[in-house]
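Hey, resending since the last one bounced:
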Amino acid sequence: MTSTEQTTTGDVVDELMSFLEDNWDPDLTVAAWWDRLGTSGWAAPSWPVDRFGRGLSRNEGVQVQETIANFGALGAPGGLGLLLAGPTIITHGTDSQVDSYVRDIVTGQKAWCQLFSEPSAGSDLAGLQTRAELDGDEYVVNGQKVWTSGGQIADLGMLIARTDWSKPKHQGITYFALEMSQPGVEVRPLRELTGRALFNEVFLTDARTSVGTVIGGAGNGWAVANTTLANERSGLGAGGGSSATSMATPGRVMGHLPQRAGDFVRGARRSGGAVLGGMGAMGKLLTDLARGNGTIGDPTIRQELARLHTYGEIARYTNLRMKAAKASGRAPGPEANTSKLAMSRIVRLSRELGLRIIGAQGMLHSYDEAGRAALAEATGSPFGAMITETALFSPAPSIYGGTDEIQRNIIGERVLGLPKEPSNDRTTPFSELPKN
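The C-alpha coordinates again:
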Protein backbone atom coordinates (compact mmCIF):
# COMPACT_ATOMS: atom_id res chain seq x y z
CA MET A 1 0.00 0.00 0.00
CA THR A 2 1.39 3.40 -0.99
CA SER A 3 1.65 6.33 1.41
CA THR A 4 -1.24 8.02 -0.45
CA GLU A 5 -3.41 4.92 -0.06
CA GLN A 6 -2.52 4.70 3.63
CA THR A 7 -3.51 8.34 4.12
CA THR A 8 -6.80 7.84 2.28
CA THR A 9 -7.62 4.71 4.27
CA GLY A 10 -6.73 6.51 7.49
CA ASP A 11 -9.11 9.35 6.61
CA VAL A 12 -11.88 6.82 5.91
CA VAL A 13 -11.33 5.07 9.24
CA ASP A 14 -11.32 8.39 11.10
CA GLU A 15 -14.60 9.41 9.46
CA LEU A 16 -16.14 6.02 10.21
CA MET A 17 -15.00 6.10 13.84
CA SER A 18 -16.60 9.51 14.23
CA PHE A 19 -19.83 8.14 12.76
CA LEU A 20 -19.78 5.10 15.06
CA GLU A 21 -19.13 7.19 18.17
CA ASP A 22 -22.04 9.48 17.30
CA ASN A 23 -24.52 6.83 16.13
CA TRP A 24 -23.87 3.38 17.58
CA ASP A 25 -26.11 2.54 20.50
CA PRO A 26 -26.55 -1.12 21.49
CA ASP A 27 -30.04 -0.31 22.78
CA LEU A 28 -31.26 0.64 19.30
CA THR A 29 -33.34 -1.91 17.47
CA VAL A 30 -31.59 -3.78 14.67
CA ALA A 31 -33.83 -1.97 12.17
CA ALA A 32 -32.99 1.47 13.57
CA TRP A 33 -29.24 0.80 13.59
CA TRP A 34 -29.21 -0.66 10.08
CA ASP A 35 -31.19 2.35 8.85
CA ARG A 36 -28.45 4.65 10.17
CA LEU A 37 -25.67 2.44 8.78
CA GLY A 38 -27.28 1.86 5.39
CA THR A 39 -28.50 5.37 4.59
CA SER A 40 -25.11 6.82 5.55
CA GLY A 41 -23.34 4.59 3.00
CA TRP A 42 -21.35 2.53 5.49
CA ALA A 43 -23.25 -0.74 4.93
CA ALA A 44 -21.99 -1.00 1.32
CA PRO A 45 -19.15 1.54 1.19
CA SER A 46 -17.72 0.37 -2.15
CA TRP A 47 -21.02 1.05 -3.97
CA PRO A 48 -21.48 4.40 -5.77
CA VAL A 49 -22.39 7.44 -3.67
CA ASP A 50 -25.76 7.80 -5.46
CA ARG A 51 -26.44 4.09 -4.87
CA PHE A 52 -26.32 4.08 -1.05
CA GLY A 53 -22.53 3.68 -0.98
CA ARG A 54 -19.54 5.93 -0.46
CA GLY A 55 -17.55 5.22 -3.63
CA LEU A 56 -14.65 3.65 -1.74
CA SER A 57 -12.19 1.14 -3.11
CA ARG A 58 -12.62 -2.55 -2.33
CA ASN A 59 -9.68 -2.48 0.10
CA GLU A 60 -11.19 0.49 1.90
CA GLY A 61 -14.50 -1.37 2.04
CA VAL A 62 -12.83 -4.29 3.79
CA GLN A 63 -11.24 -1.86 6.25
CA VAL A 64 -14.69 -0.40 6.95
CA GLN A 65 -16.05 -3.87 7.79
CA GLU A 66 -13.12 -4.62 10.09
CA THR A 67 -13.42 -1.26 11.83
CA ILE A 68 -17.13 -1.77 12.54
CA ALA A 69 -16.40 -5.24 13.95
CA ASN A 70 -13.49 -4.04 16.07
CA PHE A 71 -15.53 -1.13 17.40
CA GLY A 72 -18.06 -3.61 18.72
CA ALA A 73 -20.98 -2.44 16.62
CA LEU A 74 -23.38 -4.62 14.65
CA GLY A 75 -22.12 -5.18 11.11
CA ALA A 76 -23.99 -4.56 7.89
CA PRO A 77 -26.92 -6.82 6.96
CA GLY A 78 -25.50 -9.89 5.25
CA GLY A 79 -27.05 -12.38 2.88
CA LEU A 80 -27.70 -12.51 -0.84
CA GLY A 81 -29.21 -9.03 -0.91
CA LEU A 82 -25.88 -7.33 -0.24
CA LEU A 83 -23.84 -9.97 -2.10
CA LEU A 84 -25.90 -10.46 -5.28
CA ALA A 85 -29.18 -8.56 -5.61
CA GLY A 86 -27.78 -5.12 -4.75
CA PRO A 87 -24.89 -5.13 -7.26
CA THR A 88 -27.18 -6.53 -9.95
CA ILE A 89 -29.88 -3.90 -9.46
CA ILE A 90 -27.28 -1.13 -9.28
CA THR A 91 -25.95 -2.28 -12.67
CA HIS A 92 -29.22 -2.99 -14.48
CA GLY A 93 -32.08 -1.47 -12.48
CA THR A 94 -33.92 1.82 -12.88
CA ASP A 95 -33.50 4.71 -10.46
CA SER A 96 -36.82 3.90 -8.83
CA GLN A 97 -35.79 0.26 -8.38
CA VAL A 98 -32.54 1.37 -6.77
CA ASP A 99 -34.42 3.72 -4.46
CA SER A 100 -36.75 0.96 -3.27
CA TYR A 101 -34.92 -2.37 -3.56
CA VAL A 102 -31.37 -1.25 -2.83
CA ARG A 103 -32.39 0.95 0.09
CA ASP A 104 -34.22 -2.02 1.64
CA ILE A 105 -31.08 -4.14 1.14
CA VAL A 106 -28.60 -1.81 2.83
CA THR A 107 -31.01 -1.14 5.71
CA GLY A 108 -31.78 -4.84 6.14
CA GLN A 109 -35.52 -4.43 5.61
CA LYS A 110 -35.71 -7.18 2.99
CA ALA A 111 -33.88 -10.50 2.65
CA TRP A 112 -33.31 -12.08 -0.76
CA CYS A 113 -32.92 -15.55 -2.24
CA GLN A 114 -31.85 -16.71 -5.70
CA LEU A 115 -34.42 -18.48 -7.90
CA PHE A 116 -32.16 -19.67 -10.72
CA SER A 117 -31.51 -23.44 -10.83
CA GLU A 118 -34.18 -25.93 -11.81
CA PRO A 119 -34.32 -29.75 -11.69
CA SER A 120 -33.52 -29.87 -15.42
CA ALA A 121 -31.55 -26.61 -15.65
CA GLY A 122 -28.59 -26.53 -13.32
CA SER A 123 -25.31 -26.58 -15.23
CA ASP A 124 -27.27 -25.63 -18.36
CA LEU A 125 -29.01 -22.75 -16.62
CA ALA A 126 -30.23 -21.20 -19.89
CA GLY A 127 -32.33 -24.32 -20.40
CA LEU A 128 -34.74 -23.20 -17.65
CA GLN A 129 -38.43 -23.89 -18.23
CA THR A 130 -40.14 -21.81 -15.53
CA ARG A 131 -42.47 -19.58 -17.52
CA ALA A 132 -43.71 -16.05 -16.88
CA GLU A 133 -46.69 -15.02 -19.02
CA LEU A 134 -47.87 -11.43 -19.29
CA ASP A 135 -51.39 -10.82 -18.00
CA GLY A 136 -52.22 -7.12 -18.18
CA ASP A 137 -49.66 -5.30 -16.05
CA GLU A 138 -48.55 -8.49 -14.27
CA TYR A 139 -46.70 -11.67 -15.11
CA VAL A 140 -48.08 -15.05 -14.01
CA VAL A 141 -45.25 -17.41 -13.04
CA ASN A 142 -45.33 -21.23 -13.05
CA GLY A 143 -42.45 -23.65 -12.55
CA GLN A 144 -40.04 -25.13 -10.04
CA LYS A 145 -36.70 -23.94 -8.67
CA VAL A 146 -34.21 -25.91 -6.61
CA TRP A 147 -31.08 -25.38 -4.44
CA THR A 148 -32.52 -22.09 -3.22
CA SER A 149 -30.38 -20.90 -0.31
CA GLY A 150 -32.35 -19.00 2.32
CA GLY A 151 -35.64 -19.38 0.49
CA GLN A 152 -37.45 -20.03 3.77
CA ILE A 153 -36.42 -16.65 5.22
CA ALA A 154 -36.49 -14.49 2.09
CA ASP A 155 -38.85 -11.60 1.41
CA LEU A 156 -37.84 -11.34 -2.26
CA GLY A 157 -36.36 -13.68 -4.84
CA MET A 158 -34.08 -13.00 -7.81
CA LEU A 159 -36.13 -14.91 -10.37
CA ILE A 160 -35.22 -15.74 -13.95
CA ALA A 161 -38.06 -17.14 -16.03
CA ARG A 162 -38.81 -17.71 -19.71
CA THR A 163 -41.04 -15.05 -21.21
CA ASP A 164 -40.58 -15.84 -24.92
CA TRP A 165 -40.35 -19.45 -26.11
CA SER A 166 -39.96 -18.41 -29.75
CA LYS A 167 -36.48 -16.96 -29.12
CA PRO A 168 -33.25 -18.96 -28.72
CA LYS A 169 -32.84 -20.10 -25.15
CA HIS A 170 -30.46 -17.35 -24.06
CA GLN A 171 -32.69 -14.56 -25.44
CA GLY A 172 -36.18 -15.32 -24.15
CA ILE A 173 -35.37 -14.96 -20.43
CA THR A 174 -36.44 -12.15 -18.09
CA TYR A 175 -35.14 -11.29 -14.61
CA PHE A 176 -37.67 -10.39 -11.89
CA ALA A 177 -37.79 -9.36 -8.24
CA LEU A 178 -40.45 -11.76 -6.93
CA GLU A 179 -42.35 -11.37 -3.67
CA MET A 180 -41.94 -14.65 -1.78
CA SER A 181 -44.81 -14.18 0.69
CA GLN A 182 -47.72 -14.88 -1.66
CA PRO A 183 -50.04 -17.88 -2.03
CA GLY A 184 -48.43 -19.15 -5.24
CA VAL A 185 -44.97 -19.66 -3.68
CA GLU A 186 -44.25 -22.86 -1.73
CA VAL A 187 -40.81 -23.42 -0.15
CA ARG A 188 -39.73 -26.92 0.89
CA PRO A 189 -36.42 -27.56 2.70
CA LEU A 190 -33.88 -30.05 1.32
CA ARG A 191 -32.06 -32.06 4.02
CA GLU A 192 -28.35 -32.59 3.32
CA LEU A 193 -25.73 -35.15 4.34
CA THR A 194 -24.67 -32.86 7.17
CA GLY A 195 -28.15 -32.95 8.69
CA ARG A 196 -28.73 -29.27 7.93
CA ALA A 197 -31.20 -27.81 5.42
CA LEU A 198 -29.41 -24.84 3.85
CA PHE A 199 -31.15 -25.23 0.51
CA ASN A 200 -34.76 -25.46 -0.60
CA GLU A 201 -36.90 -26.32 -3.56
CA VAL A 202 -39.47 -23.69 -4.52
CA PHE A 203 -42.72 -24.40 -6.34
CA LEU A 204 -44.33 -21.51 -8.24
CA THR A 205 -48.01 -21.95 -9.04
CA ASP A 206 -49.71 -18.93 -10.64
CA ALA A 207 -47.46 -16.62 -8.63
CA ARG A 208 -47.76 -13.02 -9.76
CA THR A 209 -45.31 -10.15 -10.16
CA SER A 210 -45.84 -6.73 -11.74
CA VAL A 211 -44.07 -5.44 -14.84
CA GLY A 212 -42.34 -2.94 -12.55
CA THR A 213 -40.33 -5.78 -10.98
CA VAL A 214 -38.53 -6.61 -14.23
CA ILE A 215 -34.81 -5.87 -13.83
CA GLY A 216 -32.91 -4.86 -16.97
CA GLY A 217 -35.82 -5.11 -19.40
CA ALA A 218 -37.96 -7.96 -20.70
CA GLY A 219 -35.96 -10.58 -22.60
CA ASN A 220 -32.62 -9.31 -21.28
CA GLY A 221 -32.55 -11.64 -18.29
CA TRP A 222 -29.54 -13.69 -19.36
CA ALA A 223 -27.25 -10.65 -19.34
CA VAL A 224 -28.65 -9.55 -15.97
CA ALA A 225 -28.28 -13.08 -14.56
CA ASN A 226 -24.63 -13.17 -15.63
CA THR A 227 -23.97 -10.08 -13.51
CA THR A 228 -25.47 -11.93 -10.54
CA LEU A 229 -23.43 -15.07 -11.31
CA ALA A 230 -20.18 -13.12 -11.62
CA ASN A 231 -20.72 -11.56 -8.20
CA GLU A 232 -21.71 -14.96 -6.80
CA ARG A 233 -18.50 -16.63 -7.99
CA SER A 234 -16.45 -13.73 -6.70
CA GLY A 235 -18.14 -13.87 -3.29
CA LEU A 236 -18.09 -17.67 -2.97
CA GLY A 237 -14.52 -18.06 -4.13
CA ALA A 238 -11.65 -18.81 -1.79
CA GLY A 239 -10.68 -15.71 0.15
CA GLY A 240 -13.97 -13.97 -0.55
CA GLY A 241 -15.37 -13.85 2.97
CA SER A 242 -16.21 -10.88 5.14
CA SER A 243 -14.90 -10.23 8.59
CA ALA A 244 -17.96 -8.30 9.63
CA THR A 245 -20.75 -10.77 8.96
CA SER A 246 -23.69 -9.85 11.14
CA MET A 247 -25.35 -12.30 13.50
CA ALA A 248 -28.69 -10.62 12.84
CA THR A 249 -30.66 -11.77 9.81
CA PRO A 250 -32.12 -9.15 7.45
CA GLY A 251 -35.76 -9.23 6.43
CA ARG A 252 -39.02 -9.63 8.26
CA VAL A 253 -39.31 -13.42 8.41
CA MET A 254 -36.73 -14.13 11.14
CA GLY A 255 -38.02 -11.32 13.35
CA HIS A 256 -34.63 -9.83 14.22
CA LEU A 257 -35.39 -6.26 13.06
CA PRO A 258 -37.35 -5.16 16.19
CA GLN A 259 -34.85 -6.76 18.59
CA ARG A 260 -32.02 -5.02 20.45
CA ALA A 261 -28.99 -4.51 18.18
CA GLY A 262 -26.44 -5.05 20.95
CA ASP A 263 -27.72 -8.59 21.52
CA PHE A 264 -26.41 -9.64 18.11
CA VAL A 265 -22.86 -8.34 18.43
CA ARG A 266 -21.22 -10.99 20.59
CA GLY A 267 -21.11 -14.76 20.14
CA ALA A 268 -20.15 -17.23 17.45
CA ARG A 269 -20.63 -16.08 13.89
CA ARG A 270 -23.54 -17.73 12.14
CA SER A 271 -22.78 -19.63 8.98
CA GLY A 272 -24.37 -21.97 6.53
CA GLY A 273 -22.39 -24.78 8.11
CA ALA A 274 -19.18 -25.33 9.99
CA VAL A 275 -17.11 -25.53 6.82
CA LEU A 276 -18.21 -22.10 5.58
CA GLY A 277 -17.67 -20.48 8.91
CA GLY A 278 -14.21 -22.00 9.26
CA MET A 279 -12.74 -21.77 5.74
CA GLY A 280 -10.28 -19.02 6.53
CA ALA A 281 -8.97 -20.64 9.71
CA MET A 282 -9.04 -24.26 8.55
CA GLY A 283 -5.29 -24.52 7.95
CA LYS A 284 -4.44 -23.24 11.42
CA LEU A 285 -7.10 -25.42 13.01
CA LEU A 286 -5.78 -28.57 11.33
CA THR A 287 -2.19 -27.69 12.24
CA ASP A 288 -3.14 -27.21 15.89
CA LEU A 289 -5.06 -30.51 15.88
CA ALA A 290 -2.10 -32.34 14.37
CA ARG A 291 0.22 -30.89 17.00
CA GLY A 292 -2.22 -31.81 19.74
CA ASN A 293 -2.65 -35.47 18.84
CA GLY A 294 0.90 -36.12 17.60
CA THR A 295 0.12 -36.66 13.93
CA ILE A 296 2.28 -33.63 13.10
CA GLY A 297 5.16 -36.09 13.22
CA ASP A 298 3.89 -37.75 10.04
CA PRO A 299 5.88 -36.16 7.18
CA THR A 300 3.05 -36.71 4.68
CA ILE A 301 0.63 -34.83 6.94
CA ARG A 302 3.13 -31.98 7.27
CA GLN A 303 3.46 -31.93 3.50
CA GLU A 304 -0.32 -31.72 3.04
CA LEU A 305 -0.57 -28.96 5.64
CA ALA A 306 2.02 -27.03 3.64
CA ARG A 307 0.01 -27.70 0.48
CA LEU A 308 -3.16 -26.39 2.15
CA HIS A 309 -1.32 -23.26 3.26
CA THR A 310 0.01 -22.76 -0.28
CA TYR A 311 -3.46 -23.13 -1.80
CA GLY A 312 -4.78 -20.63 0.72
CA GLU A 313 -2.10 -18.08 -0.12
CA ILE A 314 -2.68 -18.45 -3.86
CA ALA A 315 -6.40 -17.96 -3.26
CA ARG A 316 -5.69 -14.88 -1.14
CA TYR A 317 -3.58 -13.33 -3.91
CA THR A 318 -6.26 -14.14 -6.48
CA ASN A 319 -8.81 -12.39 -4.28
CA LEU A 320 -6.54 -9.34 -4.11
CA ARG A 321 -6.40 -9.34 -7.90
CA MET A 322 -10.21 -9.31 -8.00
CA LYS A 323 -10.29 -6.41 -5.56
CA ALA A 324 -7.80 -4.49 -7.67
CA ALA A 325 -9.84 -5.15 -10.81
CA LYS A 326 -13.02 -3.91 -9.17
CA ALA A 327 -11.23 -0.84 -7.82
CA SER A 328 -10.20 0.01 -11.40
CA GLY A 329 -13.78 -0.32 -12.60
CA ARG A 330 -13.53 -3.76 -14.25
CA ALA A 331 -16.27 -6.31 -13.63
CA PRO A 332 -15.34 -9.70 -12.14
CA GLY A 333 -13.43 -11.68 -14.77
CA PRO A 334 -11.62 -15.03 -14.94
CA GLU A 335 -10.26 -14.50 -11.43
CA ALA A 336 -13.76 -15.22 -10.10
CA ASN A 337 -13.84 -18.57 -11.93
CA THR A 338 -10.37 -19.61 -10.78
CA SER A 339 -11.20 -18.50 -7.24
CA LYS A 340 -14.33 -20.65 -7.26
CA LEU A 341 -12.27 -23.65 -8.45
CA ALA A 342 -9.70 -22.95 -5.74
CA MET A 343 -12.39 -23.07 -3.05
CA SER A 344 -13.49 -26.52 -4.22
CA ARG A 345 -9.91 -27.75 -4.15
CA ILE A 346 -9.25 -26.32 -0.68
CA VAL A 347 -12.39 -27.90 0.76
CA ARG A 348 -11.53 -31.30 -0.70
CA LEU A 349 -7.98 -31.15 0.67
CA SER A 350 -9.32 -30.01 4.06
CA ARG A 351 -11.65 -33.01 4.07
CA GLU A 352 -8.91 -35.56 3.33
CA LEU A 353 -6.40 -33.98 5.68
CA GLY A 354 -8.85 -33.46 8.52
CA LEU A 355 -10.02 -37.08 8.47
CA ARG A 356 -6.42 -38.32 8.42
CA ILE A 357 -5.54 -36.19 11.43
CA ILE A 358 -8.45 -37.26 13.65
CA GLY A 359 -8.35 -40.88 12.47
CA ALA A 360 -11.12 -43.19 13.65
CA GLN A 361 -12.95 -40.28 15.30
CA GLY A 362 -13.87 -39.23 11.78
CA MET A 363 -16.50 -41.99 11.76
CA LEU A 364 -18.40 -40.21 14.54
CA HIS A 365 -20.88 -37.50 13.59
CA SER A 366 -23.99 -35.94 15.06
CA TYR A 367 -26.82 -34.09 13.36
CA ASP A 368 -27.82 -31.80 16.26
CA GLU A 369 -26.15 -29.51 18.78
CA ALA A 370 -26.72 -31.82 21.75
CA GLY A 371 -25.07 -34.70 19.94
CA ARG A 372 -22.12 -32.55 18.89
CA ALA A 373 -21.59 -31.47 22.49
CA ALA A 374 -21.72 -35.11 23.65
CA LEU A 375 -19.15 -36.15 21.04
CA ALA A 376 -16.86 -33.27 22.00
CA GLU A 377 -16.98 -34.38 25.64
CA ALA A 378 -16.41 -38.06 24.78
CA THR A 379 -13.48 -37.45 22.43
CA GLY A 380 -11.96 -34.47 24.22
CA SER A 381 -11.93 -32.51 20.96
CA PRO A 382 -14.40 -29.68 20.34
CA PHE A 383 -13.44 -29.56 16.65
CA GLY A 384 -14.35 -33.08 15.57
CA ALA A 385 -17.80 -31.96 14.46
CA MET A 386 -16.27 -29.31 12.21
CA ILE A 387 -13.98 -31.90 10.61
CA THR A 388 -16.75 -34.40 9.93
CA GLU A 389 -19.16 -31.74 8.71
CA THR A 390 -16.48 -30.44 6.34
CA ALA A 391 -16.11 -33.99 5.00
CA LEU A 392 -19.84 -34.42 4.49
CA PHE A 393 -20.24 -30.94 3.01
CA SER A 394 -17.19 -31.17 0.72
CA PRO A 395 -19.00 -32.23 -2.51
CA ALA A 396 -21.21 -29.12 -2.39
CA PRO A 397 -18.72 -26.35 -3.33
CA SER A 398 -17.87 -28.12 -6.58
CA ILE A 399 -21.57 -27.97 -7.51
CA TYR A 400 -23.21 -24.76 -6.26
CA GLY A 401 -22.52 -21.37 -7.79
CA GLY A 402 -21.69 -23.07 -11.10
CA THR A 403 -20.07 -26.51 -11.14
CA ASP A 404 -16.32 -26.95 -11.46
CA GLU A 405 -16.91 -28.20 -15.01
CA ILE A 406 -18.79 -25.01 -15.89
CA GLN A 407 -15.96 -22.88 -14.48
CA ARG A 408 -13.44 -24.79 -16.62
CA ASN A 409 -15.62 -24.36 -19.70
CA ILE A 410 -15.82 -20.62 -19.09
CA ILE A 411 -12.06 -20.35 -18.62
CA GLY A 412 -11.41 -22.46 -21.71
CA GLU A 413 -13.81 -20.63 -24.01
CA ARG A 414 -13.75 -17.04 -22.76
CA VAL A 415 -10.18 -16.76 -21.47
CA LEU A 416 -8.12 -19.24 -23.48
CA GLY A 417 -10.17 -18.87 -26.66
CA LEU A 418 -10.79 -22.59 -27.11
CA PRO A 419 -13.62 -23.53 -29.52
CA LYS A 420 -17.05 -24.14 -28.10
CA GLU A 421 -18.80 -27.46 -28.44
CA PRO A 422 -20.94 -27.63 -31.60
CA SER A 423 -24.47 -26.47 -30.84
CA ASN A 424 -27.40 -24.75 -32.52
CA ASP A 425 -29.07 -23.67 -29.26
CA ARG A 426 -28.17 -20.02 -29.83
CA THR A 427 -30.08 -19.86 -33.11
CA THR A 428 -32.96 -22.33 -32.66
CA PRO A 429 -36.15 -21.20 -30.91
CA PHE A 430 -36.25 -22.69 -27.42
CA SER A 431 -39.64 -24.27 -28.12
CA GLU A 432 -37.97 -26.45 -30.79
CA LEU A 433 -35.05 -27.64 -28.68
CA PRO A 434 -35.22 -31.10 -27.07
CA LYS A 435 -36.01 -30.93 -23.33
CA ASN A 436 -34.91 -33.10 -20.44
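Strands lie at 112-115, 131-135, 138-145, 156-162, 173-179, 185-190, 199-210.

Sorry for the duplicate.
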